[in-house]
């Protein structure tokens, strides 16, 4: 599965736009990590326990987004983004989302479908 943050895939044409695909995960803080984080807040520095937790959550949300796109019949995702929001005090949602698309066969003209239609009308 090709995943891009851009709206196009360089050198490939988008044959069909399927629609939005997404994957999310909600993670709650762990009391043990909170104790370590509290100590780090006193002395300063990165809270590695939370960094690791959020990285794992992003990866899980990303994987779920890819599986959703595959279930829709897509072979690529464009415009991929992450968002994070607070669900409750101590819990956050990580959402990965983008547009599921089907790519034209390799070697096809690398133009957006609307651009092709416009060019044939001229």
UniProtKB/TrEMBL annotation:
InterPro entries: UPF0145_dom_sf, UPF0145_YbjQ-like. Signal peptide: none annotated. Pfam families: YbjQ_1. Belongs to the UPF0145 family. This is UPF0145 protein FF098_002475.
């Amino acid at each position: 599965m090709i995943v891009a943050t851009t709206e196009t895939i360089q050198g490939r044409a988008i044959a069909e736009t399927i629609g939005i695909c997404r994957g999310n995960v909600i993670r709650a803080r762990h009391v043990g990590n909170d104790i370590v984080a509290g100590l780090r807040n006193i002395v300063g520095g990165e809270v590695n326990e939370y960094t690791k937790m959020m990285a794992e959550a992003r990866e899980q949300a990303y994987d779920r987004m890819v599986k959703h796109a595959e279930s829709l019949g897509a072979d690529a995702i464009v415009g991929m983004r992450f968002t994070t929001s607070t669900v409750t005090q101590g819990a956050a949602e990580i959402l990965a989302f983008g547009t599921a698309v089907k790519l034209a066969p390799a070697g096809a003209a690398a133009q957006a479908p609307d651009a092709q239609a416009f060019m044939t009308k001229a």
